[in-house]
Amino acid sequence: MATDLQSEQSALTADQATSPSTGTSTNRSTGERYQRIRAMSVNIAAPLTPEDCAMQTMPDVSPTRWHLAHTTWFFETFLLKEQPGFRPFHSDFERLFNSYYNSVGEPFPRHRRGQLSRPGLEETLQYRQHVDVAVSQLIDQGELNEHQRYVLELGLHHEQQHQELMLTDIKHVLASNPLYPIYTKNTATNNNTEASLSTTLQWSETPETIVEIGHNGKGFAYDNESPRHRELIQPHAIADRCVTNGEYLEFINAGGYQQPEHWLSLGWTAVNENGWKAPQYWVRGDEDWRQFTLSGLRPLDLHEPVCHVSYFEADAYARWSGKRLPTEFEWEHAATANPTGSVFADRLMESGHVIHPRTAGASDFTGNVWEWTGSQYLPYPGYRPVSGALGEYNGKFMCNQFVLRGGSCATSSDHIRLSYRNFFPPDARWQFSGFRLADSR
Amino acid sequence: MATDLQSEQSALTADQATSPSTGTSTNRSTGERYQRIRAMSVNIAAPLTPEDCAMQTMPDVSPTRWHLAHTTWFFETFLLKEQPGFRPFHSDFERLFNSYYNSVGEPFPRHRRGQLSRPGLEETLQYRQHVDVAVSQLIDQGELNEHQRYVLELGLHHEQQHQELMLTDIKHVLASNPLYPIYTKNTATNNNTEASLSTTLQWSETPETIVEIGHNGKGFAYDNESPRHRELIQPHAIADRCVTNGEYLEFINAGGYQQPEHWLSLGWTAVNENGWKAPQYWVRGDEDWRQFTLSGLRPLDLHEPVCHVSYFEADAYARWSGKRLPTEFEWEHAATANPTGSVFADRLMESGHVIHPRTAGASDFTGNVWEWTGSQYLPYPGYRPVSGALGEYNGKFMCNQFVLRGGSCATSSDHIRLSYRNFFPPDARWQFSGFRLADSR
Amino acid sequence: MATDLQSEQSALTADQATSPSTGTSTNRSTGERYQRIRAMSVNIAAPLTPEDCAMQTMPDVSPTRWHLAHTTWFFETFLLKEQPGFRPFHSDFERLFNSYYNSVGEPFPRHRRGQLSRPGLEETLQYRQHVDVAVSQLIDQGELNEHQRYVLELGLHHEQQHQELMLTDIKHVLASNPLYPIYTKNTATNNNTEASLSTTLQWSETPETIVEIGHNGKGFAYDNESPRHRELIQPHAIADRCVTNGEYLEFINAGGYQQPEHWLSLGWTAVNENGWKAPQYWVRGDEDWRQFTLSGLRPLDLHEPVCHVSYFEADAYARWSGKRLPTEFEWEHAATANPTGSVFADRLMESGHVIHPRTAGASDFTGNVWEWTGSQYLPYPGYRPVSGALGEYNGKFMCNQFVLRGGSCATSSDHIRLSYRNFFPPDARWQFSGFRLADSR
Amino acid sequence: MATDLQSEQSALTADQATSPSTGTSTNRSTGERYQRIRAMSVNIAAPLTPEDCAMQTMPDVSPTRWHLAHTTWFFETFLLKEQPGFRPFHSDFERLFNSYYNSVGEPFPRHRRGQLSRPGLEETLQYRQHVDVAVSQLIDQGELNEHQRYVLELGLHHEQQHQELMLTDIKHVLASNPLYPIYTKNTATNNNTEASLSTTLQWSETPETIVEIGHNGKGFAYDNESPRHRELIQPHAIADRCVTNGEYLEFINAGGYQQPEHWLSLGWTAVNENGWKAPQYWVRGDEDWRQFTLSGLRPLDLHEPVCHVSYFEADAYARWSGKRLPTEFEWEHAATANPTGSVFADRLMESGHVIHPRTAGASDFTGNVWEWTGSQYLPYPGYRPVSGALGEYNGKFMCNQFVLRGGSCATSSDHIRLSYRNFFPPDARWQFSGFRLADSR
């Protein structure tokens, strides 16, 4: 998932793609799924002003309007461009909304995306409609070949990745404004309920064992989840829920951000250069901590999982507490044995709740918050990038990043898998990222 | 005038302010003038989208929306705030739209102005209206004291300075977009007319003489134009018009941008670090040069004065041609003996023309393009900054800048004076800045 | 080993240290070993001028004089300081020559080490002697306790690490000078012999297997080599020798440095920002490539292993050739089955040869050139840092680095082990670093 | 004088050069003067170690050894190179010791001068001797033509400029070392004498007057001192001595470094970015201020002129005290009417005193400390750069610098003139720079 610099790292080998039968009813369901996923992007932008959609508050953030255009560009470039008779919406958009595909031409500089006032929001929505009409026609005609079905599938997952980035980027944009604007007045799922207390932390023990890791080939997956292979796991224990705000606050109050001994060397540099004193979006009030959320400034809920921490902070907390982060293999093994989570972006939006983590609980291996693992992002044994433009950069980001697992409250429920490997540099904090502890035995 | 970092450097000692009699008719004319000048700011923004008004394409550029708010903040802070019963439009705006007055509180970081999506354009226009109503009432009541009349006068000149910055900032914003959006389809005043040829350059000779320099005390002036004092001018000649695009093109074609011997040491560094090959907004086509204007990309007009050049470029051209730039005193002396120009922002807008220089002619000491002088910006002998917040920073920019004189096509005709001292660092190019030559005798 | 920022990451749990019996003969051999290793540092500096010893040509490089002092500081601080009656050579040296032990006090800024002219070379050598006399007395007294024996052992390995850094830093210093000064006129071991041709590359096949990885507890090891544990290795093949200059030249000639598709995203940035066109110290002549060595500029020997390449370059070459780098576990497994190398710093110096790689051959898993692996540097399962100042930063560098294995021609033969884990950021090139290929089966 | 980047800005039009008659006695005196001035450079380096001579502690500082070589390069390049039969000492030195003459070839990067260990100090001294022998022979032959006499003269003034830079650079190098090494144990001229109290400050009044400014053509001068011309001076008063440490301390104690209202905008930025709290080389002790001098750390002498302040600090002090700095014309006019100073580098060295300012007194317009003026460095009316390589960059530094006048305790007595224009950027502090006050009337 990662930033859009990375978000197209993923591809699907053709034989892994779903192979829908070509009957009319399938076309109809494919078309409806396309409409549904595409509509969610527009829904995410709906509460925003044109100016909100134009902001880039740090180089990693892209304007909402850019996300809306770039995801559209993906279908136009890889699916429609070679269709006979298709006319591009605007001849300059191919370069303007290319993220980093060198084979498609030199991309517009990433850090300058927030300096483009045109095309405006309205024209961008027209661009989306122009492409949606053409794609829908193509689907309805029922003559998509295998590669086209693959590109369509890939484009929808790509769109869902960018939906999560839209939400995290919007949060960064609004939080950068001293007026603390509110994205939505909706509340979180667990506010004001008696059940909103995090459970006592339990440890799950695992002896040395050989496990199967990676995608099993059923349904869609990115190529970095393959090949499925065997890994030897060492004896260890893993926590059954994530670290909470309350637990993390103890680390802060114990002076954790002032003590170099808990930190990686690069992490200590990051703490000092950025002036970190708490997770991102925590705001120190006169008497207490508050946190900026998509529904505005709120009191810090001690039972929620700590969120918007970097790998450095997760790792420092773990050292301070005498534990460590799980490897991505330990995580995947543990997740397989646990129930699926329920805090996902699509469901929150449908039920009228704000995109925000729920109280940390034992069923949250997926959803709620991404979980940093102690694994640097590297290829699986036998990994091969696919060929062509779509696979141009597969694996090119496998350096100096750490793997996150499980998705978050900003991920769609049909986008995440247990084998899904997200990755970010260790100082990234603007995603909904938390962590759970593990320990060697 | 300068950037807004500098644009409030100016103040008026109380006794220099106009002292209108307090009859009703005066109130009415003051009120009308206030309305007219304030309306021009809104008119400048009228062709723009909300997104256009939000962009900051380099640190020196402020979003149009910021200019609209900041000029309003000026009246609110220095005129209305202490009025009994006045309620500020929004309690946070005082800090948000402060440019650099430390005594008013810590300003919002200048380079982050383009990261604020709120207040949006609509709310900003409401803010203007809120303040305009209160100021107009104050004027109509006819009870402005001397200090209030001074602040009102200063605020209107301040507004006019920012109107010029709005125009140059908008030009920078639009030029930064590969789509080259058009601000207005209006054409320049001298397009397609037979009279649009620059005149043959003539030299005006002056022997050694002592001249009076600075503002004569009649009407409004900034404090940096005072005190009026005597200067000894050396024997010299000064050109009767500015250097044209055609003449400057010869310098380019002769390899001027590749030859260090014409350049100041800092200038040569600027050429290489920024990759300068021509004035800003010149675009090299396959066969010819074009220039980006507020009415879009157009063929380069060889008879227009060269514009959007830095001091470094003006100085290098002068050295290359065996001449030099005039001092600001030589310029002021020459300007006094010449007719007033006619290419000003207010007149161009009234007559439906684009803001763009006209063919270089002999009557353009004022208007058309600002003229770089060879004088670094320093205080006049006996200069004293005024006291209080408004004068807080008078003179604080008198270091490492060069003086420009005469105003430009983006200046209002009732804003400029022969004694007016504009100033910018020697690498600034986004203003409508050109130059004329001089020579020692 | 790594840079000195990292070089003290290593510690020895007390029970891993050698436990010499305390007889006089043991004291004598310990004393002799101490003298021998300490003397080698001085020998490395012997061909240099005082000015050579003062240079810091990039932040990663430390002046030779600093290395001489810092290794001495180690013994003074951790072994002598608490001895009754010991007087430090100079009260300010504790801070001046601390590399990064926060618990010892705030270190002098690393990047400013080349700005210290005092203490000079002569005084630094006196400092060494002062400490050597005290340490030798301590050894001779035969009353070292267990902790002291551990610190002594650690200090000697620390000294050997810095000896390698001295050699690589000196090479960088001399190569930065347009005069290309010669460190020694000695030649390499394999110059002008018929046997100096690299062998045809052979592949060694391994099926899936579980192997023991890490130090076996016999003799000295750093803590990052522990605990010894089991790893599952996938089916793969590994080359029996390193990639040669000749092979790497094909990559260059095929345009490898101009084609983004072979490079990691961060690697492509490094190529362009640093202007890399070949390995470090390669010099393009009019007709051929030459390389700067410690015996001066010499024709490029196509049969030597390619050296002074970054991880990015090793990885790009591997992708270009359709292969990959081995994991550190694959490497350790293969090395265990192969004969030990013979190209080490101590032996080269003893036999009067220059420190330079020898023709790539099948017996060079250790010595000759360090080998980049595809493994990011992470803790072994169950790794625990030791406590106290010496272990202060164990593991603090386990982030965004890659593991190198096997030692180089600049490593001492009694310093390297098959379990030895060196680590550097992926853009480091000034070490004697090469690589061998592997492939998945 | 300025940094060496600037120090060759100066040239002598041929007719301004001394025109010695060509008799043997003249040759002998020229030869002796050459030997004397050249010897002083070596004497300045005499107390230093080879390592001291190699340091570059900031980009503006050059290693002493570089100064020794560069001044030699000047004679070799501009005087000897075209002599028949002359063999350069080393073919690579032409590029290595070129400061910035583009017409002589691309100079070695300035900021990397401290990364060259070769040629070492000994070889550099041999280089000097090689050139000195050849120059002396040329002088003795008595056949120097006019241009050669001019170059010789220029080379000696160039050498003296670099002697001052050697002293200030050495001070910076030693002060950067926490050991605070002592350059010489010699004391200052006025230590421990009863007469060492600064006099009460007196003001000298001047009405409006026209004065002659610039060099009168007798003896050597740099071209920036010409042409001599008339300037109109406004009514003003000027202080008869410089501001003292004691007076400046009042500014510090009054919070001057914490109050933005006294500072130029760029100055306030410099204060905060550099963490300035006092003049350079002032060291805050537990109970009092000390200052680092070339004879080590000493108590601050309140009666000495404040030294090592930037233009920004001089200007801020002046504003704080309700005064201003004199213009360079006011200074030159006042200096003409006052006795010559006596605190110069050559005399201090001859009499065995340290290079350090003496108690501020009324006869110090020349010597003691350079005095910042309020004038930015611009060409005099009618200034023309000379042609050819030596004049290549005349005037290229006339931008964003301020003029200093009068020389310092590090200037040779036969190098300074009342018309001498030194110049530095407003944030430079490592020269012996102080200031006196003026006021408008």
Automatic annotation (TrEMBL), chains A, B, C, D:
Residues 1-33 are annotated as: Disordered. The keyword GTP-binding does not apply. Residues 34-165 form the DinB-like domain. One of its GO terms (biological process) is ergothioneine biosynthetic process. SUPFAM superfamilies: C-type lectin-like. Pathway: Amino-acid biosynthesis; ergothioneine biosynthesis. Residues 214-344, 359-438 form the Sulfatase-modifying factor enzyme-like domain. Keywords: Iron, Oxidoreductase. Gene3D superfamilies: paralog of FGE (formylglycine-generating enzyme). It holds the Pfam family DinB_2. InterPro entries: CTDL_fold, DinB-like, EgtB, Sulfatase_Mod_Factor_Kinase, SUMF_dom, SUMF_sf. Residues 1-29 have a biased composition (Polar residues). This is Formylglycine-generating sulfatase enzyme. It comes from Rhodopirellula sallentina SM41. The lineage of its organism: Bacteria, Pseudomonadati, Planctomycetota, Planctomycetia, Pirellulales.
